User: Fold this.
Amino acid sequence: MTRWEFVPYSGVTVDISLRDNPRYNWLLVLGLLAAIYLLINLGLPRLPIDPFAKAYVVQPILWGLLAWAILVLPKYRTAGGLRLKTAIIQLALMIGFFQVVLYVIGGLFSSFGRSPNSFTPTGILTNLVFVGAMLVGMELSRAWLINRLGKKHTFLALAFVAVLYTVLALPLGRITGLRPELASITYVNSTLLPTLAESMLASFLALLGGPLAAIAYRGILQAFWWFCPILPDLAWVFKGLIGVVVPIVGLAVANSLRVSRRRPGQARREREGSLAGWIVTTVIAVAIIWFAVGLFPMQPTTIISGSMRPTLDVGDVVIIAKVSADTVKPGDIIQFRESEGVTTVHRVVEIQESEGIRVFITQGDANSEPDANPVLFANVVGKAVFDIPKIGWAAIAVKEFFMG
Assistant:
């Protein structure tokens, strides 16, 4: 426990302890997490030191210092109590093992490939230090935050911590580089969504069972991806499905276990509303994200140029319906791929056919001439069905802030 002594002129000694002043300690933890994340993503790449040292020496030191800082801070009692702690840790191990088994079964139906990681003794030890330091630092701080913030507003604290540690687990460049294109959709479904679901479950486990429960669950997954020489080569849809569904089911099971340990009357009331509320909220959140990245027949896209004024303006969000190009007629507004990673929303002004190949001639409403390149039917993403003015400005502002 960190302790200071202040001796005023009167000669009376005043003992000031962090344990006696815990109100703002969570701000200190958030500040440390933000500093580590920004240093790793923005500071270290600019330092003139060896890349190996940046990744495998400096980063473990940073996470180790965070773990030490958490251990120095005032202690806490988990929301689950001592009676539930052992059961939650066992459940965390079972969920992690079950998720790995599903990944392996998925590999049997797709294929397997060699891991890109090094499996020499030095490589294994280096990766163990790298992964272990990050895992311990993140889960100690996660458990401390969730148990400090979740005493009064459990759901809000869980949502906040889950999103926070999702961001911490992903490179800043990948987050700010998300765009409505196939590569981003693949990344969101195969990496971002599973990371968010994993973070939600780890946060709930940490709330009930402390850092050991979260380490037990995430440690099995990290050990599988980092230290298994042969890994399943899953399609991004199935990888995302397993990575999202298993943590959601695990969350429901953990919550059911928590409720079952309560007093009969209290357990019955919580079981009626809490479990259903968790499942519905999680499914809705995942559905919203899936809709945003285009896994449903409709998807949103943000207008970032003025070429369609006055019909569509910068910051408008247009809902694109995925329809067959054969149903598109002159006058319809479509979204189409111009090149890899670039999409445009313009109006169809004409349909032409040459040598059996039909193409769309498109033009922005604010442009004086049609677009230079005709649009192949195969490049049509979908047709605009309606728009919501200006709500996309928030996404534009955030992206501009991070990307300068």
